[in-house]
Design a protein that fits this description.
The complex is a heterodimer. Chain A has helices at 2-12, 17-20, 31-48, 56-68, 93-107, 113-116, 122-130. Chain A is mostly helical. Classes of the chains: A mainly alpha, B alpha/beta.
Chain lengths: 136, 428
């Protein structure tokens, strides 16, 4: 269900779809491939991404959009740039894990569990994504 | 021991959503079995492409629309068997007029809800996601959606029930064990009211494929699904998997009297046994089934001759139906039994609703209670030819009015686990 929410939020911001394909492909089967992979990635980043990375507004907009499609948020009007997942949006600890999973998919990054556990609000999530050079 | 009576009924079955609709259609001889290839193309390679599915549609038309029973938040954390059971519990509790609000009443109310297979779709989807994406793709809801006892947990959370919260999972005997165990909780004083039953929903190509591999299913009826499940018929070929749930409100007699609610029937006996024989097949002489029925009658203090109706487990398999038939005849035509086989009233409702696995015992307990209430024996549909040895009255294809004061309902599961419940018309 949340997966479909992700799809919906992706559809809402279609122009980025092309960039999704540029996620670093880690090929570990041979040393040559390992050497090749980073070069291809850096080329693609240079080609598609703005040098300054994502703006705070864009990140926030995409996270808000994603939460609006999350069924467990009973009152979408409460979703703002500073919403706390549990205090403001009524999400429990399991919901928060799902939200962070969706954020990972949205920005094509992986967030280690320990760091994910620190993300309790939209503000924290935006801050985290802003600091990730790979997020796009 | 405290006496236990039935004061509420709820059902979501392949014949429709709601007890009244299901019972009416059952008596009219309808069948809920359909071809399911349109649900998933992968059924095409499986020899059994049919199942008894809960019809989609509006509640007022007897159909299933999940949003009419719960909000999106509850829906996404609940297995489908638990969703069906939640709807059945709501119907049963409304029927029994039991929505307690005081702490004392809530403490004295519990839930027994089991499932045979559980949330098969969730296991499958998560395995696929894990295989493709590893740990990061595992949902935090995986375990809570997977665990079978969460169905009982969800019902307790919705209604504030803080009494015993239990989940039997004994394959196709699950529903009967849930009801029997719940009655024991009441009889022993652990609770005054229990909402009890079973649910199942595993119409997935892999689950059906597994039963097909075990050679348990009817495979010659993909183009003629309504005739696939034919209990006791000479041309029976195997069972048809079904989905749905049924819940009963069981209540301590004086508690029910004190509230002045109508009593459907009394649950007088609960017998359990094991075959100790084979992983999937019953003993040919039906010894395990015989013992379960005998124990239920002993507890109920009823002679075999007094049994007016048996809702058989009979799933439409060659071996299973024959073993149960043999057991029933041994018990009801034995000492203190009836004189003639034709006076033994037995029917199987699985021709109409298929085999609900973990839900079967609960749905059939509900049918047995309704049979007592209406003095009506539900039909065994698709029964056109009887083989030698099948000489009881099976109510072939048409419901039969009968005086039904005492009835048994049987359930037998893989692993050789058997249970029989004895219901009786309530008398002071």
């Amino acid at each position: 269900m949340f997966r479909s929410a992700i799809v919906r939020s992706l559809r809402a911001s279609a122009p980025r779809a092309a960039m999704k394909t540029a996620a670093p492909i880690q090929i570990r089967s041979s040393p040559i491939a390992v050497q090749m992979a980073p070069r291809m990635v850096s080329q693609s980043i240079r080609f598609y991404s703005a040098p300054a990375g994502l703006s705070k507004d864009e990140i926030e907009g995409r996270i808000v959009n994603l939460l609006k499609n999350f069924d467990k948020v009973s009152d979408p009007s409460k979703i703002t740039g500073v919403s706390h997942f549990s205090n403001d949006l009524g999400l429990d600890s399991l919901d928060t894990v799902e939200v962070v999973m969706a954020i990972e998919e949205e920005f094509s990054i992986e967030i280690p569990d320990k760091e994910a556990d620190q993300i309790h609000s939209i503000e924290k999530a935006v801050e985290y994504i802003k600091a990730q050079p790979d997020a796009h | 021991m405290r006496r236990v009576v039935v004061t509420g009924l709820g059902a979501v079955t392949p014949l429709g959503v709601g007890v009244r609709r299901t019972w009416k259609r059952l008596l009219e001889g309808h069948c809920g079995i359909v071809n399911v290839v349109s649900r998933d193309e992968r059924f095409r390679e499986i020899p059994a492409q049919i199942a008894a599915v809960v019809p989609k549609g509006k509640k007022e038309d007897g159909g299933w629309t999940v949003s009419e029973w719960m909000n999106r938040g509850d829906e996404r954390v609940m297995a489908k068997f638990a969703q069906f059971a939640m709807a059945a519990a709501e119907e049963a509790l409304s029927d029994a007029r039991w929505k307690p609000t005081t702490p004392e009443e809530q403490h004295a109310t519990g839930v027994c809800l089991g499932s045979g297979i559980g949330n098969f779709d969730e296991i499958y989807d998560t395995v696929v996601a894990y295989e493709q994406g590893g740990y990061k793709k595992v949902s935090p809801l995986f375990v809570p959606k997977l665990l079978i006892n969460l169905g009982a947990g969800h019902i307790s959370m919705r209604y504030g029930f803080m009494g015993p919260n239990h989940a039997a999972t004994t394959a196709c005997t699950t529903g009967a064990h849930s009801i029997g165990d719940a009655a024991r909780f009441i009889a022993c004083g652990d609770a005054d009211v229990m909402v009890a039953g079973g649910g199942e929903s595993c119409i997935h190509p892999l689950a059906i494929g597994g039963f097909a591999r075990a050679r348990s299913l009817a495979t010659d009826f993909n183009d003629d699904p309504e005739h696939a499940s034919r209990p006791f018929d000479a041309d029976r070929k195997g069972f048809v998997v079904g989905e749905g749930a049924a819940m009963l409100v069981l209540e301590e007699l004086d508690h029910a009297r004190g509230r002045g609610v109508p009593i459907y029937a009394e649950l007088k006996g609960y017998g359990c046994s094991a075959d100790s024989h084979h992983i999937t097949a019953p003993k040919e002489n039906g010894e395990g089934a015989y013992m379960a029925m005998k124990k239920a009658l002993k507890q109920a203090q009823v002679q075999p001759a007094a049994v007016d109706y048996i809702n058989a487990h009979a799933t439409s398999t060659i071996v299973g139906d024959a073993a149960e038939n043999a057991a029933i005849k041994t018990l009801l035509l034995g000492s203190e039994g009836k004189n003639r086989a034709i006076d033994v009233n037995v029917s199987s409702t699985k021709g109409a609703v298929g085999h609900l696995l973990g839900g079967a015992g609960a749905v059939e307990a509900l049918f047995t209670v309704m049979a007592i209430r209406d003095d009506m024996m539900p039909p065994t549909i698709n029964l056109t030819r009887l083989a030698d040895g099948f000489d009881c009255n099976y109510a072939p294809n048409e419901a039969q009015p009968r005086n039904i004061d005492i009835a048994l309902t049987n359930s037998f599961g893989f692993g050789g686990t058997n249970s029989s419940l004895c219901f009786a018309r309530f008398k002071d």
